[in-house]
Amino acid sequence: MAAKLPLSRREFVKGTGGLLIGFSLADSAIVPQLLSAAVPPQAASTTPSPARLDAWLRIEKDETIRVFTGKAEIGMGVETAYSQIVAEELDVAPARVAFVMGDTAETADQGGVGGSTSVAQGAKPLRNASATARFLLLQLAATRLGVPPDQLEVKDGIVSVKGDPSKHISYGELAGGTDLNDALNVSGAGFGLNVQGAGKPKDPASYTVVGTSLPRVDMPAKILGHFTYITDVRVPGMLHGRVIRPAGVGATPATVDEKSLQGIPGVVKVVVKGNFVGVVAENEWSAIRAAKALKIGWSAPVQAFPEREDLYRHMRAATPKATRVMANQGDAAAVLATATKKVESSYEWPFQSHASMGPGCAVADFQPAGVTTIWSGAQKPHALQQGIAQLLNLSADKVHVIWVEDSGSYGRGGYEDTAGDAALLSQAVGRPVRVQWMRADMTAWGAKGPASVFDLSAALDAAGSVTALQYTSRAFSGTEILPQPNSAGNLLGAQLSGVANTTGADEFAVWGDMAPRYEFPNLHAVGYVVPTFYATGSPLRGTHLRDPGGPATTFAVESFMDELAASVGADPIEFRLKYIGNDARAKAVLASVAEHAKWDRRPSPKKPAASAEVVAGRGVALAIRNGTYVATVAEVEVARRTGLVHVKRIVCVHDCGLIVNPEGLRAVISANLMQSLGRALKEEVTFNRSNVTSVDWTTYPVTRASDVPEQIDIVLLNRPDLPPGGAGEPSSRPTAAAIANAVFDATGVRVRQAPLSPARVKAAWGTAVSA
Amino acid sequence: MNTNTSLKVNGQTHAVSADSDCPLLYVLRDDLALHNPRFGCGLGQCGACTVIVDGRAVRSCLLPLSRAAGKEIVTLEGLGTLEKPHPVQAAFIAEQTFQCGYCLNGWVMSAKALLDQNPNPSDAEMRKAFESLVCRCGSHARIFSAVRRAAASMRAAANLSDAQRSA
Questions:
Q1: Are B130 and B108 in a shared domain?
Q2: Computed from CA positions of residues A66, A68, A73, A78, in that sequence, does the dihedral angle turn out positive or negative?
Q3: Which residue of B has its CA nearest to A220?
Q4: B21 and B45 share a domain?
Q5: DSSP letter string over B103-138?
Q6: CA distance A276 to A749
Q7: Chain B residue with the nearest C-alpha to that of A671
Q8: What percent of chain A clears pLDDT 70, i.e. is strictly above it?
Q9: Contact at 8 Å (CB) between A475 and A279?
């Protein structure tokens, strides 16, 4: 029985790579194998054109369908979903589909991973290429079997004549080992890259593989301990590197005392390049010891940040660097000026850290005369190829990025920077270097999800209807560090070594995009971007963190909607339905969550007994993200003495169009809920005037076992009539607002600052009680 | 500075030459190519590096090599095989437990250590045993389900073997 477990068929590298890293559960050895292949140094490493079928898919003689994709697995099961999509179009068993992912010499540039687009957009060229391959294989089979293609059928890669199954031929016999070099029409680029060929994809109504809960193809290998993560890559002659970040923002190493490393065996080199400092050693422990022991006389850091408690005051007072009016209809200001009833509230959301489980790891093999190889788990390998090439002053075709899975990542959290660090250190020592970040390198010095503040006000008429709403957001830009690491200036090591930051266009906290687009007769929404604290080499640099801007903006807007509902004595769900317009899918998720949560239809708050030590309440929030709809209800208990909020139950209704893999989707949503619960209750980057002080799992707490709700109900609304949408991020979005609304329902106290830590809740409650 | 140490891992004895202060984690990963104990923090705060030493779940990132010598060390590699997965592994696979799986070593090894000592942990006991572990992706709910499934299957197997003995 066990032998039938589905196995991950992912493979890294083909003949041109010089090294073959692979594993097989058939191997007698348990340890992942590293095979060194004697391949001469390469002259160049080029990315395949997407315009040929064999850039996407090849049929092997052993009947393996080898698929090449510029996408990557970041832990949410996209490899499994892709294997279903390919298997569906080709009529083969999913277990025969093997992947090469994110290798810049082997896969087309699909923009890497981001924006919950891997299934919604990234699967399109795979689907079309597979359909075209099937079409061509049937043409070949028709010739070989002597009947027209429409008299053929396919079952698990065997083409046979309808009504005469004795006449058959397999895909491998037809095309095994040959290149399907048919031309494809290419459209779009990056996430939107698509190809079209002679084959038409199937009608979704006929799907038999897509829509089923195929188990995750990578799970057995991972749980049985046979899986190769980036941290397990070893190459011959490899050294170990560690980086030492500045004592604070802008600090420079005035003195570096290499004598302080005496007695540590195997230290190869101390590398200093501007404010970038690293050590390289023969073994990992020596590198760790050297990084700790190295005496550096840092110059005084720049006092670039405000005191932590002044962050939101600073953001409101700062002169914005950019302004955008996001909605303007009617005359909200005039209506508010004369309104008899007004509600005004402000909300605050902190910097948050990616804090990936694995702190970041990469291997670089710098080759001045040949092709430099980078092994990295960064989400966007093709962009990284450009960035590393610029960093090393090489042309892009002299850099080969081999993507190998790292721990889960949630945006541009730092794996890109680790690759840059490894490249700098390998260049400095002329040998392959593996860089493993320590915990603080990720939690303190990885790029951050930006802080934001929101001011909302609304006018209500005598009948309790909202007549006008004003929205103002002030946020650090989520593109202080671009999600695409396609320039040297994007990489932290490069910035510290003196390369200017390559920032992007300003990114706002956007009304109607990062929160539901409610409709009011008079509406004015404006956003401001707060200037960065420090342009280059700062640990408080904003970038994309899972659902950029979404949880923060939705926390503000969905909390405010709740305040408005409470102000007119309306049930929170009914109030939302009144203002959501004609959006049937939004109405459907709200109705469904009310039904499944057995929603207690009444206004909030619940008005607890003043003496109760623990009070309970429920709250709701809605999220709409790029065509995916989520409604979440949280049921909480709040302890009066401690201010501790415990979520007892979460009900999440999710509609992302056609569902490719229901069980895989449930797992992704469940994880999103638990991660965003931590962001709502615990996660906050702390800092002093010149450095980040949340550096590890104690100072940057995340969801732990004791935080997990006793009951989690996930309800999937399948929409086979709609194309599959994104699911990697949307269910992260409404959690914080739903919890804050439940806390209000339980206590009658509105907490408007995230995270809802015990101290913050206790302080707000205490103030309310004494007032 | 390097000393020769004899390490007993997964039933096999290995002679290693390393600094006696070097945490066991790096010896396992770099000298013995046992990669499943994973580096998560190096501070004992997350559990990704967990191994079982003389029956107890231990953070290998904090355990000096000198204190691991002579002990019975079990890593994830030593639990089960594809043909015969450990019941904890079988349960974690059946529940499709993880997202990225980088942390799973800590949860699987801690679950084994817990169930070896307490075959029927209550919800509170399970949470307490796991409070010192991190799963950044948020797979907790499925982890709990997997541990309950593993506990049930291990109890069933134990009852079965009791019945066989008494028969």
A1: yes
A2: negative
A3: B93
A4: yes
A5: THHHHHHHHHHHHHH-SS--HHHHHHHHTT---SS-
A6: 47
A7: B138
A8: 94
A9: no
Q: How many CB atoms lie within 10 A of CB A605?
A: 18
Structure tokens at A86: 């390919």
Question: Are A195 and A54 contacting, i.e. CB atoms less than 8 angstroms apart?
Answer: no
Least confident residue range of A173-177, A362-366, A726-730, B27-31: A173-177
Helix, strand, coil percentages in chain B from 3-state DSSP, rounded to 5: 45, 15, 40
**Single residue among B12, B45, B78 that ends a domain in this structure:** B78
**Statement to judge: residues B6 and B62 lie in one domain:** yes
pLDDT higher than 90, residue B104: yes
Q: Parse chain A into domains and list their residue ranges.
A: 2-227, 239-301+355-443, 570-770
How far is the C-alpha of A725 from the C-alpha of A252, rounded, in Å?
Answer: 47
Determine the residue type at A415.
Y
Statement: residue A19 has pLDDT above 70: no
Domain count, chain B: 2
Identify the domain containing residue B115 by its residue range.
Answer: 87-166
A239-301+355-443 is classed in which CATH architecture? 2-Layer Sandwich (3.30)
> Quick check: A697 and B42 CB within 8 A?
no
Of B40, B80, B137, the CB nearest to A224: B80
Last residue of a domain, which of B23, B55, B78? B78
The CATH number assigned to the domain holding B44 equals 3.10.20.30
Q: How far is B7 from chain A (nearest CA, A)?
A: 18
> What's the CATH number where B121 sits?
1.10.150.120
Across the range A237-241, mean pLDDT stands at 98
pLDDT of residue A29: 33
| B75 conformational bin, left if phi > 0, alpha if psi -120 to 50, beta if neither | beta
Do B100 and A675 form a contact (C-beta atoms < 8 A)?
Answer: no
d(CA A750, CA A249): 36
Residues of B in Cβ contact (< 8 Å) with A704: 130-131, 133-134
Q: Tell me: domain A2-227, CATH 3.40.50.11060, correct?
A: no
How, if at all, do strands B72-74 and B2-9 pair? Answer: parallel
Work out how many CB contacts closer than 8 A connect A with B: 191
Distance CA A36, CA A723 (A): 43
pLDDT exceeds cutoff 70 at B167: no
Measured between CB atoms, does B17 come within 8 Å of chain A? no
Residues A130-147, mean pLDDT to the nearest whole number: 96
Cβ(A656)–Cβ(A730) below 8 Å: yes
CA dist A50 and B74 (Å) reads 47
CA–CA dist A238, A233 (Å, integer):
10
Q: CB-based contact (8 Å) between A735 and chain B? A: no
- Mark whether B94 and B72 lie in a shared domain: no
CB contact under 8 A, B136 and A439: no
Same domain (yes/no): B71, B99? no
Judge if the upstream peptide bond of residue A605 is cis by omega within 30 degrees of 0: yes
B89 → closest Cβ in A30, A223, A439? A223
- DSSP conformation class of B87: H
SS3 of residue A430 by DSSP:
coil
B117 and B72, same structural domain?
A: no
- Confidence bin at A176 (pLDDT 50/70/90): confident
Q: Does B161 touch chain A (CB under 8 A)?
A: no
Residue A6 has pLDDT above 80, yes or no: no
Residues B94 and B159 in one domain: yes
Q: Using CB atoms, which residue from B82, B84, B100 is nearest to A408? A: B100
Please name the member of A226, A229, A667 whose beta carbon is closest to the beta carbon of B142.
Answer: A667
> What is the CA angle B141-B143-B144, rounded to 5?
65
Backbone angles phi, psi at A429, to 5 degrees: -110, -10
Answer yes or no: is pLDDT of A127 > 90: yes
Within this chain, do residues B47 and B98 fall inside the same structural domain, yes or no?
A: no
Please state which CATH number belongs to domain A570-770. Answer: 3.30.365.10
A570-770: same fold as A2-227? yes
